[in-house]
């Protein structure tokens, strides 16, 4: 018995014996590892993949050291790694937050020193640790391949790192979606599996059948230098956005995630300054898509202003008050943030020869993003599926415009088709975005007038929100009531 | 309230869309007090408790716990409070020991401190024999003890217990009441929400009644129980006698201050104009001096659930203490 244990009371000694993980490890990670390592999903996949790989290794040995045997083992190895990292691990994350929501334990966790971030990170890291354990368990088969053909160690290490990165992003996305209703989770899970299958299974099967020897096969196009770093950077941005989304599902109203979420898409534009023209164009397009996605997420939210959130920024002085108004939770603050970005884009476009088009696209994109949020302001407060409602309006308006334009065009009413495509909110953005030529001046004026009307109406609908924020500003900080015991 | 307030809530309001779940609620709780929170479903109890527990933000109003602003400094407040909701929140494939160990780690305890804290709460809640039992396979009483153990892990000064006795059998209920007494003896301040009002009356120093988001009563249990008799034009007294009750009835008819409410087989129910215990003692002495064989003489107290139902029937009364002007989220 160690001397420290000898001084413990019997009950304390009993507890000390039970500690299976060091106490310095994060609590959430310990809890998730305890549960995860016992879970059927982990134990089942560990055993199943060992059996599969043992069988393939035996077949390969039986076939001799020819290229066909190597192909079989090579294909099986990568398929199993792919399945482990890109299917099993994210699929297990699909139940991540649901377990907490079903146990109704989120509030209890938040009353400890755990924050929404610590909870989500604990779950995410735990899943990646378990994925790493599965990968480590595959190493003997990776070594076995060496005896059947040459193995490019550096290339394979890079590929495994990329697979692991992909797994990290997908797992974060799955964690985010794990708080959604079951039908949403199932749909996302199926989509991921189908996309993965399309991207990987074909090439893996070819590899197995073709008996390709030599360098490790890669499901990705060759990547070097800047493009690789850009992929890592963009993947990290998507990863953090997914984690913020997951945190939001758990965090109490006192935690405001809007500042980080609204900053992330802006970061995506930074690398465009440091890479070549072709990569910069792609990066700007990626940034625009990410910005639109985050704007849609933020505009679909219905939070009312809270004094606690405002005061955090107000205490930082004049700049804090200016920045603070753009990062408050709720659609009305998101509208201000989006309008500011649209203005900055238009100003940045002044340096371009296509400044008019850039300004118009920025205006129409803002209108397209704000229009569904404007309609949602008239929905009942009991309507909780606001994100679904937002997507429905966005896609529905696009679809109606397309069908309307096609119908009008088919019966020869071209003017109506043009109006439908060029003037209505959302469709006007798509038409202007993908058209090579500028529309006629009357259409241009109509686009601007309608966009201004949509944005003006949205601004008007946000007045109560801004009024309340002004009240917080006027109220300032207050000391504790007299007589309160500290 | 004589002691300085430990919990001070002023003008709390929380709105969900058009629904005002909590509407201008103000109250104080002194350190070391046990306070009952009563209200029908939808009265706003849970919303109020969630605000106090830092899990929700009010649209307006302030709360200070031990001088710390609950709204602005939730993380500081969380270290000083424990919340035991009406559900336990246990996980699958988790033993009682692992469950408590996880929460102790989550509260930031490490090494020997973690072991000591776990040992203390396990001893207090007598869970030592259940450490290897799956947490989701306990009886209701054991589950409540586990829930209390988790709540006590950070040694909170202020505890919020939401329906702690719901679903417990009489033995477990008694055990739980004893635990509450022990907590009070340790100087904890408790806010207990329950529908079992008689139990709240036994455990609590004062009661908060909520109705439709408003605080309709804040006072001690005795004043609540006796309100009924006052409104009936006198304080209800039950008198039982040995033998024929007619001399008692005749005595009540002539004696000043008394009014017969109901003649009974073994006595009578009467109303007396004065609630002063000295006056009542004097009347009892006169009654016996006049030759009436009194076997029982007591002032009636209204049952708390009756008081609660009657209070809900009354038009909305101002909260006690009256709410201060609403301060926007300061």
Provide structural commentary.
The complex is a heterodimer of chains A (486) and B (330). By secondary structure, chain A is mainly α. Chain A folds into two domains: 22-220, no CATH class; 300-472, no CATH class. In chain A, 75% of the residues lie in helices and 0% in strands. Chain A is built from 22 helices and no strands. Chain A has helices at 3-6, 10-18, 27-38, 40-62, 67-93, 96-103, 106-110, 116-145, 153-177, 182-210, 225-250, 258-267, 277-299, 307-314, 318-326, 331-348, 355-376, 386-410, 414-422, 427-434, 441-461, 463-475. Chain A is globular, with a radius of gyration of 27 Å. Mean pLDDT of chain A is 83; it is low at 1-6, 210-220 and 479-486. The longest helix of chain B has 16 residues, at 170-185. Chain B has 330 residues and is of the alpha/beta class. The relative contact order of chain B is 0.15. Among the domains of chain B are: 92-151, no CATH class; 226-303, 2-Layer Sandwich (Alpha-Beta Plaits), CATH 3.30.70. Chain B is built from eleven helices and 14 strands. Chain B has a six-stranded mixed β-sheet with strand order 6-7-8-3-9-10, with helices on both faces. Chain B has a four-stranded antiparallel β-sheet with strand order 2-1-4-5. In chain B, strands 12-13-11-14 form a four-stranded antiparallel β-sheet. Chain B has helices at 45-52, 74-78, 96-106, 111-125, 140-152, 170-185, 197-203, 221-231, 246-254, 277-289, 304-313; strands spanning 5-16, 19-30, 34-39, 60-65, 68-69, 81-84, 158-162, 189-193, 206-211, 214-220, 235-241, 258-264, 267-272, 294-299.
């Amino acid at each position: 018995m160690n001397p420290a244990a000898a001084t413990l009371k019997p009950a304390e000694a009993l507890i000390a014996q039970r500690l299976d993980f060091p106490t310095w490890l994060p609590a959430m990670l310990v809890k998730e590892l305890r549960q995860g390592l016992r879970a059927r999903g982990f134990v089942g996949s560990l055993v199943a993949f060992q059996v599969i790989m043992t069988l393939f290794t035996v077949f390969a040995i039986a076939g001799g050291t020819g290229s066909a045997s190597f192909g079989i083992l090579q294909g099986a190895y990568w398929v199993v790694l792919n399945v482990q990292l890109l299917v099993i691990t994210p699929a297990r994350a699909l139940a991540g937050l649901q377990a907490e929501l079903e146990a109704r334990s989120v509030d209890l966790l938040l009353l400890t020193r755990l924050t929404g971030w610590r909870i989500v990170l604990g779950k995410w890291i735990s899943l990646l640790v378990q994925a790493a354990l599965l990968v480590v368990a595959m190493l003997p088969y990776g070594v076995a391949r060496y005896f059947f053909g040459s193995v490019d160690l550096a290339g394979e290490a890079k590929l495994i790192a990329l697979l692991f990165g992909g797994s990290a992003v997908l797992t974060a996305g799955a964690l985010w979606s794990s708080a959604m209703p079951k039908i949403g989770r199932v749909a996302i899970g199926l989509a991921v599996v189908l996309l993965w299958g399309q991207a990987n299974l074909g090439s893996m099967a070819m590899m197995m059948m073709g008996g390709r020897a030599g360098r490790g096969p890669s499901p990705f196009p060759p990547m070097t230098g800047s493009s690789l770093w850009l992929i890592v950077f963009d993947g990290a941005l998507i990863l953090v956005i997914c984690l913020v989304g997951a945190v939001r599902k758990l965090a109490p109203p006192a935690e405001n995630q809007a500042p980080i979420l609204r900053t992330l898409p802006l970061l995506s534009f930074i690398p465009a300054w440091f890479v070549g023209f072709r990569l910069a164009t792609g990066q700007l397009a990626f940034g625009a898509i990410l910005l639109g996605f985050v704007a849609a997420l933020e505009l679909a939210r219905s939070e009312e202003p809270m004094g606690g959130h405002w005061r955090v920024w107000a205490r930082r002085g004049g700049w804090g008050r200016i920045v603070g108004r753009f990062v408050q939770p709720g659609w009305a603050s998101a509208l201000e943030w989006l309008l500011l970005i649209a203005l900055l884009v238009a100003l940045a476009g002044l340096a371009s020869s296509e400044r008019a088009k850039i300004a118009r696209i920025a205006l129409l994109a803002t209108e397209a993003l704000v229009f569904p949020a404007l309609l949602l302001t008239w929905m009942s407060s009991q309507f909780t599926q606001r994100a679904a409602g937002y997507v429905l309006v966005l896609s529905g308006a696009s679809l109606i415009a397309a069908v309307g334009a096609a119908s009008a065009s088919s019966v020869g009413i071209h003017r109506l088709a043009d109006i439908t495509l060029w003037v209505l909110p959302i469709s006007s953005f798509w038409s202007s975005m993908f058209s090579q030529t500028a529309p006629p001046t009357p259409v241009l004026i109509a686009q601007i007038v309608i966009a201004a009307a949509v944005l003006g109406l949205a601004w008007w609908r946000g007045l109560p929100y801004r009024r309340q924020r002004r009240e917080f500003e006027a109220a300032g900080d207050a000391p504790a009531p007299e007589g309160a015991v500290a | 309230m004589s002691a300085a307030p430990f919990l001070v809530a002023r003008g709390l309001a929380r709105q969900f869309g058009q629904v005002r779940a909590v509407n201008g609620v103000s109250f104080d709780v002194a350190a070391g007090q046990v306070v009952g929170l009563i209200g029908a479903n939808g009265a706003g109890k849970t919303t109020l408790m969630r605000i106090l527990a830092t899990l929700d933000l009010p649209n307006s109003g302030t709360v200070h716990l031990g001088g710390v602003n609950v709204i602005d400094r939730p993380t500081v407040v969380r270290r000083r409070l424990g919340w035991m909701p009406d559900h336990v929140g246990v996980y699958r494939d988790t033993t009682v020991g692992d469950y408590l160990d996880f929460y102790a780690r989550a509260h930031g305890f490490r090494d020997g401190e973690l072991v000591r804290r776990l040992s203390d709460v396990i001893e207090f809640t007598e869970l030592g024999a259940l450490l290897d039992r799956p947490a989701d396979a306990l009886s209701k009483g054991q589950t409540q003890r586990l829930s209390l153990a988790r709540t006590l892990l950070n040694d909170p000064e202020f505890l919020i217990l939401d329906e702690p006795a719901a679903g417990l059998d009489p033995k477990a209920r008694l055990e739980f009441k004893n635990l509450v007494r022990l907590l009070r003896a340790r100087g904890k301040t408790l806010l207990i929400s329950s529908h079992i009002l008689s139990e709240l009356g036994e455990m609590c120093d004062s009661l908060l009644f909520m109705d439709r988001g408003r605080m309709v009563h804040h006072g001690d249990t005795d004043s609540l129980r006796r309100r009924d008799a006052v409104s009936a034009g006198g304080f209800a007294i039950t008198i039982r006698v040995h033998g024929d009750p007619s001399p008692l009835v005749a005595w009540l008819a002539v004696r000043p201050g008394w009014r017969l409410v109901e003649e009974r087989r073994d006595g009578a129910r009467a109303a007396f104009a004065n609630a002063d215990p000295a006056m009542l003692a004097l009347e009892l002495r006169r009654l016996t001096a006049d030759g009436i064989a009194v076997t029982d003489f007591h002032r009636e107290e209204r049952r708390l659930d009756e008081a609660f139902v009657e209070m809900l029937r009354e038009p909305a009364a101002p909260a006690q203490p009256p709410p201060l002007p609403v301060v926007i989220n300061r």
